[in-house]
Automatic annotation (TrEMBL):
Protein name according to UniProt: Purine and uridine phosphorylase
Gene source species: Zopfia rhizophila CBS 207.26
Domain Nucleoside phosphorylase: 42-144
PANTHER family: AAA+ ATPASE DOMAIN-CONTAINING PROTEIN-RELATED, ATP/GTP-BINDING PROTEIN-RELATED
InterPro entries, A to Z: NLR-like (IPR053137), NPHP3-like_N (IPR056884), Nucleoside_phosphorylase_d (IPR000845), Nucleoside_phosphorylase_sf (IPR035994), P-loop_NTPase (IPR027417)
Length: 771
C-alpha cells in the first residue's frame, strides 16, 4: 500500500482524512450529539496546548450544557470516527492534582469516556531527546509509562523511596500504539502532513504552531557537538587513539586509551553523524516511546534532572507536571512535545511548535484506535467510582498542595531582597517576657483605637531603659496571634539598632518590610519577580523608588498592613536616612491601608515627625516590674532572697526606685544577687539610687574598678573605653586594634603595638558588673 493512503495493510492502517471526515459527517447527521456519545477525553494544561488540540479536530461540535459544579471549559469535536472532549486546566493552575480535578469533572459530565489523552509540552532528557521531538508514554519494566517521581517517603541516609503505582494505559491505546510505532518505522510519521493541514485551515497559527527557521536548539550547536565532525575527522581521532594505545603497549603498560575505548569512540562519533550537533530541520523530528516522569514541581536544574533519570534506571525521556494526576483517575496515554531540557535555560520559543507536534501525534494515534476496541473498554466513570474517597481527599487538598509548589526560586528571590531576618530576634525578646506582661499597653484606649481604625499611627516615646523593645515584641506577638488566620492582614516589623546602621539604610529597611509581607504568601508576586530578573542580569540592586513601588503593589493585596518599628531614634541619621525612610513610609500609608506603630527615645527630631499622631509613653509598669522581679528572685541562688518577708521588701523597694526605667530593675536586682546576709540586703535597699542617678552610679562603679587596676591596665582600659565611646560608628575588632596602636608622632603602625583582641575583651570584662 502507498504511504499516501496512510496504511500498512487493509486491516491495519488508518483511513484517509477525507474518508474519516465523510464518515464523521454521516455520523453527526445520524447520531444526536449528547454527552454520552463522547468516548475520548483529551486534557491540556495550557491554553496554547488547547489551541493546538482544537486545530487538529476534523469537526468542531456545538457546546453542551454542563452541571453547575463542573468548572471546566470544554471544546467538543471529532477526529475520524471518535468523538473527542478537550478540557484545559484553569489558567495558572498546574500539577498533578489540578489535572486530577479537571479529569474528575470531565468524567462526571461525559460518562461514556473510555480512553484518555494527556497532550502538551514537556522537558526532554538530552541527548536522547531533542527540542521539537515527541515523547509518548509507554510501559517500561515495572513502570506503566508514567512515574510520579515525587510520591514516596524519606528514609534514612537521605534516601527517597517511591511508593504507590499509577494505572496502566487502556489496552485499546496500547494496541494502537504498537501499530503507530510500526508505521513510523516503515513509512515515517504523518505529523508534518497534519501540521500542513493546520496551516491551511488556520493560517493565523502558522507563525507559531508550524516549523520556523528561527527555532534554534542552543544545546546542540554546530561548534559544540562531536556529531558535526566530518568522517575524516572521526577517522583521524580513531587512528590517533590506536597509535597511543600501541605506544602504551610497547612501553610496557596500558598508559593510554585501551582498544575497547577506541571502539566506544568509534561508535559515539559515527552514530547519527547527519543529525547530532546540527540545527534541526522539520523532518528531523523523532517520536520516542518510553518513560515520562511526572511531579508537582517544575524542574529547572540539569543536575537534578539527570540524577532523577539515573534513579529511574536511565529510562526517562521526558519530565512534566500533570500526567500522574490524570493517570490515577483516567486510563490514558501521555504525549509530550519537547520545548526545553528541564534546565536553567528554560525558554518559551519552542512551546507552540512543541504543542502542535504533540497534538498531531495524538491525532495520528487516534487513527489507529478502532471504535470497536474503545467500545470494549470499561467506562472511566465506573473505574472512578471505586476510588471516590481518594478523589475527595485529593480535591480537598488541591489548594494546599499547590501552595507548596516549587519554592526554590521564591526562596532565592527572598534571600536576594535581603538576608536580614528579624524573626529570631523577635522570638528571643518575647521569650524573656513573663505571662501577662504589657497588658496595660494592649488594653489602653490608644492602642485599641490604633488597631481598630484604618491608617492610624501610634507613636510610643520612652526614656532609655523603659522597656520599649520588649513592649514592641509584645505588640508583634499580639498581632500575629490575633490575625493568625486572617490572610488579608499583613504584619511586618523592624528592630533598629545603632550598631547595625550600615545594614539599616532606608532602602534596606523597606526591603525587609517587603520580604516579610511576601513570605506569608503562596508565591512571590510577578512584579517582585520582574524586579529580581531585571537586576540579577545586571548585578545591580533596586533603587528606593523601585522598592517603594513594589511595596505599594504588595500592600494592595492586603485589607490592612501593620508596620511596627522599634528604636526609630537608632535609625541611620547620616544623609537624612531616618527622614527619608519615614517619608517613604508616610507616602505608602497615604496610598494604602497601613497602620504604623513606632517607639523611640523622646528626642525632638523624632517627635516632630509624629506631631498630631496618637501618642502613648512607654514606662516601666509596676505590675510588669513585679512579675519580672518575682521570676528572677525565684531563680536566685541566695537563700536569703527566698525569705517571704525579704522577698516582698526587695520587690517593693526596687519598684519605688526604678522611676519608669525597666533596666534599673535589672541593675538593682543584680547588685543584690551575691549578698547572703539579710542585713546587707536591707541596707543596700535603703541606698538604692533612683532614676538617672542609678546610671551615674553604675558608671562611677565601673570607673572605680578601672582605678583599682594596675597603672598600665588603667591606661589601657581608659583607651579602650574612649575609642569605643567616641567613635562615630561601631568599630570592628581589627579597627579597634589599629586605633589602640596609634602613637602620637608616629608615621606608621608598628606590629609590636597591636594589642591582642583577647586582652581587650579581658579588660572590658574586668570592669563589667557581675550578673
Amino acid at each position: 500500500m502507498s504511504e499516501r493512503n496512510g496504511a500498512i495493510g487493509d486491516d491495519e492502517g488508518p483511513v484517509s482524512s477525507k474518508t474519516k471526515t465523510r464518515k464523521a459527517d454521516r455520523k453527526s447527521h445520524s447520531i444526536e450529539l449528547t454527552h454520552n456519545v463522547y468516548t475520548v477525553g483529551w486534557v491540556c494544561a495550557l491554553p496554547k496546548e488547547q489551541t493546538a488540540a482544537t486545530a487538529m479536530l476534523d469537526q468542531i461540535h456545538p457546546d453542551l450544557p454542563k452541571p453547575p459544579n463542573d468548572h471546566n471549559t470544554y471544546t467538543l469535536g471529532s477526529i475520524g470516527e471518535h468523538n473527542v472532549v478537550i478540557a484545559c486546566l484553569p489558567k495558572g493552575k498546574y500539577g498533578n492534582n489540578s489535572a486530577a480535578t479537571v479529569a474528575t469533572w470531565m468524567i462526571g459530565t461525559f460518562p461514556s469516556i473510555k480512553v484518555g489523552l494527556m497532550v502538551g509540552i514537556g522537558g526532554g532528557i538530552p541527548p536522547k531527546v531533542r527540542l521539537g521531538d515527541v515523547v509518548v508514554s509507554t510501559p517500561v519494566d515495572q513502570y506503566p509509562g508514567v512515574v510520579q517521581w515525587d510520591m514516596g517517603k524519606a528514609e534514612k541516609d537521605n534516601n527517597f523511596k517511591r511508593t504507590g503505582a499509577l494505572n496502566n494505559p487502556p489496552s485499546a491505546l496500547l494496541t494502537a500504539l504498537t501499530k503507530l510505532e510500526t508505521k513510523h518505522e516503515m513509512h515515517g510519521s504523518k505529523i508534518h502532513q497534519y501540521l500542513g493541514d493546520l496551516g491551511k485551515k488556520w493560517p493565523s497559527l502558522v507563525p507559531k504552531y508550524t516549523w520556523s527557521d528561527s527555532l534554534k536548539d542552543s544545546l546542540f550547536t554546530p561548534d559544540s557537538s562531536p556529531g558535526t565532525r566530518s568522517r575524516w575527522q572521526v577517522i583521524s581521532l580513531i587512528l590517533r587513539d590506536m597509535i597511543l594505545a600501541l605506544l602504551g603497549y610497547l612501553l610496557g603498560g596500558w598508559a593510554f586509551a585501551p582498544i575497547n575505548r577506541v571502539a566506544e569512540q568509534m561508535t559515539s562519533h559515527t552514530v547519527n553523524v547527519k543529525v547530532e550537533g546540527t540545527q534541526r530541520k522539520p523532518r528531523d523530528m523523532h517520536v520516542h516511546y518510553g518513560l515520562i516522569a511526572s511531579g508537582n514541581q517544575v524542574i529547572k536544574d540539569a543536575k537534578f534532572r539527570d540524577s532523577l533519570n539515573e534513579s529511574l534506571g536511565g529510562n526517562v525521556l521526558c519530565v512534566e507536571m500533570e500526567a500522574a494526576g490524570l493517570m490515577n483517575y483516567s486510563p490514558c496515554i501521555v504525549i509530550r512535545g519537547i520545548c526545553d531540557y528541564a534546565d536553567s535555560q528554560k525558554n518559551k520559543y519552542w512551546q507552540e511548535y512543541a504543542a502542535a507536534v504533540a497534538a498531531a501525534c495524538a491525532k495520528e494515534l487516534l487513527g489507529y484506535v478502532q471504535p470497536s476496541e474503545v467500545d470494549g473498554e470499561r467506562p472511566v466513570k465506573d473505574i472512578l467510582d471505586q476510588v471516590l474517597d481518594t478523589v475527595s481527599r485529593a480535591e480537598a487538598n488541591v489548594e494546599k498542595v499547590r501552595s507548596k509548589l516549587d519554592r526554590n526560586e521564591d526562596l532565592e528571590i527572598l534571600k536576594w531582597l535581603t538576608p536580614i531576618d528579624y524573626g529570631p530576634q523577635q522570638s528571643d525578646l518575647f521569650s524573656r517576657c513573663k505571662d501577662g506582661t504589657g497588658q496595660w499597653l494592649l488594653n489602653s484606649e490608644e492602642f485599641q483605637d490604633w488597631i481598630s481604625e484604618s491608617k492610624q499611627t501610634l507613636f510610643c516615646p520612652g526614656m532609655p531603659g523603659a522597656g520599649k523593645t520588649i513592649m514592641t515584641s509584645i505588640v508583634v506577638e499580639h498581632l500575629q496571634s490575633k490575625f493568625e488566620n486572617a490572610s488579608r492582614i499583613g504584619i511586618a516589623y523592624l528592630y533598629c539598632n545603632f550598631h547595625r546602621q550600615q545594614e539599616q539604610k532606608p532602602v534596606d529597611l523597606l526591603l525587609c518590610l517587603l520580604k516579610q509581607l511576601i513570605q506569608g504568601r503562596s508565591s512571590v508576586p510577578e512584579n517582585v519577580k520582574s524586579l529580581y530578573d531585571r537586576h540579577m542580569t545586571k548585578r545591580t540592586r533596586p533603587s528606593i523608588d523601585e522598592v517603594s513601588n513594589a511595596l505599594h503593589s504588595v500592600f494592595t493585596d492586603y485589607s490592612t498592613v501593620f508596620i511596627i518599628i522599634d528604636a526609630l531614634d537608632e535609625c541611620q541619621v547620616s544623609g537624612e536616612g531616618r527622614t527619608k525612610f519615614l517619608s517613604e513610609i508616610f507616602n505608602l500609608q497615604a496610598k494604602a491601608e497601613v497602620n504604623l506603630f513606632t517607639t523611640s527615645r523622646a528626642i525632638p527630631e523624632v517627635e516632630r515627625e509624629f506631631k498630631g499622631c496618637i501618642s502613648l509613653e512607654i514606662r516601666a509598669n509596676d505590675e510588669d516590674v513585679y512579675k519580672y522581679l518575682d521570676g528572677r528572685i525565684s531563680q536566685a541562688q541566695s537563700h536569703a532572697l527566698q525569705r517571704p518577708d525579704l522577698r516582698e521588701n526587695i520587690k517593693t523597694e526596687i519598684i519605688n526606685a526604678v522611676d519608669g526605667m525597666f533596666l534599673l530593675a535589672k541593675l538593682h536586682l543584680d547588685s543584690l544577687l551575691d549578698m547572703r546576709l539579710p542585713k546587707d540586703i536591707r541596707t543596700a535597699l535603703k541606698k538604692l539610687p533612683k532614676g538617672f542617678e542609678a546610671y551615674n552610679d553604675a558608671y562611677r562603679e565601673a570607673m572605680d574598678r578601672v582605678e583599682r587596676q594596675g597603672l598600665k591596665t588603667q591606661e589601657f582600659a581608659k583607651q579602650v573605653l574612649s575609642w569605643i565611646t567616641c567613635a562615630r560608628r561601631p568599630l570592628k575588632p581589627l579597627e579597634l586594634r589599629h586605633a589602640l596602636a596609634v602613637e602620637t608622632g608616629a608615621s606608621e603602625l608598628g606590629e609590636e603595638n597591636l594589642p591582642e583582641i583577647e586582652d581587650i575583651v579581658s579588660v572590658l570584662l574586668s570592669i563589667r558588673r557581675r550578673v
